[in-house]
């Protein structure tokens, strides 16, 4: 498979937005557009691709801030878990404002077909009640569940420390050591590195 990825730290908290492209079909997905909508739109247009989905790992504002702008610009369906959408509808602190604009709720085991790519979804609650990670071949996009050398905060509303540890151990640490980890903030890592060096695990 010919997969190309652009990582753009966006917004005031520099959340990693990922533009993931099938270079053969020129279909793409945008993951966690957290801010700087104009920059992200420009980055997508430079690739001359068709945005098939906008996928959100969770509902915090630093990961959803540009989602509506991209949805409007590219007419792409916006997808998030039902659990995090419920937090958004209730106007909970730290959650983004995308109420009324979600096209699909992401569930455990969902697979998004984008060109020749299969994007597999797995629920990883803990940082938020409805956090999800996305697997594409030998890469996992972990949002704010797992970072290089750390894990997501659980002191915001809806967070749960025991749940995030359970999610990481049962959903992510079962992956092979070679799988690359692309987190919601900071540098990339691998499952193997985190298995050995992450102090929370």
Radius of gyration: 15 Å
Q: How many structural domains are formed by the residues?
A: 1
Order of helices and strands: EEEHEHHEHEEEEEEEHEEH
Number of strands: 14
Quick check: average pLDDT? Answer: 97
Molecular structure report:
The chain has 201 residues and is an alpha/beta fold. The protein has a single domain, classed as Ribonuclease Z/Hydroxyacylglutathione hydrolase-like (Metallo-beta-lactamase, Chain A, 4-Layer Sandwich). It is built from 6 helices and 14 strands. It has helices spanning 37-46, 61-64, 67-74, 82-89, 161-172, 191-197; strands at 3-10, 15-22, 27-31, 50-55, 78-81, 104-106, 111-114, 117-123, 132-136, 139-143, 146-147, 150-151, 180-183, 189-190. β1 and β2 (15-22) form a beta hairpin. The mean pLDDT is 97.
Write a concise keyword list for the protein shown above.
201 residues, alpha/beta, Metallo-beta-lactamase, Chain A, 6-stranded mixed beta sheet
Brief digest:
The chain is an alpha/beta fold and 201 residues long. It has helices at 37-46, 61-64, 67-74, 82-89, 161-172, 191-197; strands at residues 3-10, 15-22, 27-31, 50-55, 78-81, 104-106, 111-114, 117-123, 132-136, 139-143, 146-147, 150-151, 180-183, 189-190. Strand 11 and strand 12 form a beta hairpin.
SSE inventory with pairings:
Elements: E1 3-10, E2 15-22, E3 27-31, H1 37-46, E4 50-55, H2 61-64, H3 67-74, E5 78-81, H4 82-89, E6 104-106, E7 111-114, E8 117-123, E9 132-136, E10 139-143, E11 146-147, E12 150-151, H5 161-172, E13 180-183, E14 189-190, H6 191-197
Parallel strand pairs: 3-4, 4-5, 5-6, 10-13
Antiparallel strand pairs: 1-2, 2-3, 7-8, 8-9, 9-10, 11-12, 13-14
